[in-house]
Input
Amino acid sequence: MEYGQGGLPQCPPETVELRDRVAEFVRGRVIPCEPVLDAGGPDAAAALAELRCAAREEGLWALPLPEELGGQGVPLRSYAHIAEAEGASDHGPAALGSAPLLDVVMLLRHGSHTVREAYLKRLVAGEVRTCYAMTEPDVPGTDPCSTGTRAVRETGGDWVVSGRKWFISGAAEADLVTVLARTDGAPGDRTGLSLLLAPTDAPGFRVVRELPVFGASGQWEIELDRVPVPGSHLLGERGQALAIAGERLQLGRTLRCLRWLGQAGRAFGLLCSRAQSRSGSRGPLAAQQLVQRHVFDALLALRTARPLVYEAVARIDAGLDAHVEVGLAKVAAARMLQQVADVAIQVHGAAGLGPDTALPALFRTGRAARILDGPDELHMTSVARRVLRGGVRPAVG
Output
């Protein structure tokens, strides 16, 4: 059973065929490769390279990235529906070349001419890999103003960066890392934070360790020990990191919500398939009222979360502030993915705990989503404060 397009808005007619092609690519090519891709190492790299070649051959490469850089320029309002389809697998965005979207947008808007010329086309082509280093050990991730990493400007205009960062996706394979560092002021000051793009092959850069999340790889801790960074690699203006980071986070959290919708749809499909195919001494599971309630609750969660995510998409696409919409969507989508994966596991029984389905990975993603990229409590507090200051309507319409 395949999860349908519940909720509003519906996929634009001109995007339906492309979305369906992406869904088929993820279902037929990416998902069968997940065991190899999850394991990492040379075999995973070879499998990913093969998938990327196939995506290019099928005209599915870098769909949301700018045409002038080698992408296909699909606008966010249309790409949102594609992001659901490719997000059904954690590896979908990387296989289809859309994974660097956040970095491409950030460098295009805030990178110097030198940075844009050196990296953007190579980033879109998949020749250069990036990661984003913001949080630190022993520093609350919800309080970037307490960042301990420092960048000192040397004679001649270059920077020297020192500090430690953790829970960084893809750091071990990255060629470039965007680092949040204090360039002025004291810890706790809201001003004086800047973003610098550091090459990972520079002296003093070190991958400290991998940080498995519920046993899954992909997150890392790094150390920067007087890492030299060219002056041209400062992103935006000195001291403007929080504004740039906020812009990045709004889009990034919304993209993740879209991909969580895709993963929840996959879990919902597994739930329904199990209910329809499994029988016991009391008959098929689908005939049991408790199982029917699980199906209803899962569908309700999906249909409730999806419009919230698309409200955030619409605000960002229109260039409007979307703090409230993104906060609501992020909390709702993360909880929803965890809930749908959880009931799917329950209906599968012991089979839902083992390696024969994607359910353990989907549940792990949902649970981690409620902490990573801003915990539920951060978004709840932020949205509530905006509501209580006035000017936020209880519903859109």
Strands lie at 130-133, 150-153, 159-169, 176-182, 193-199, 205-210, 219-229, 234-235, 279-280, 283-284.
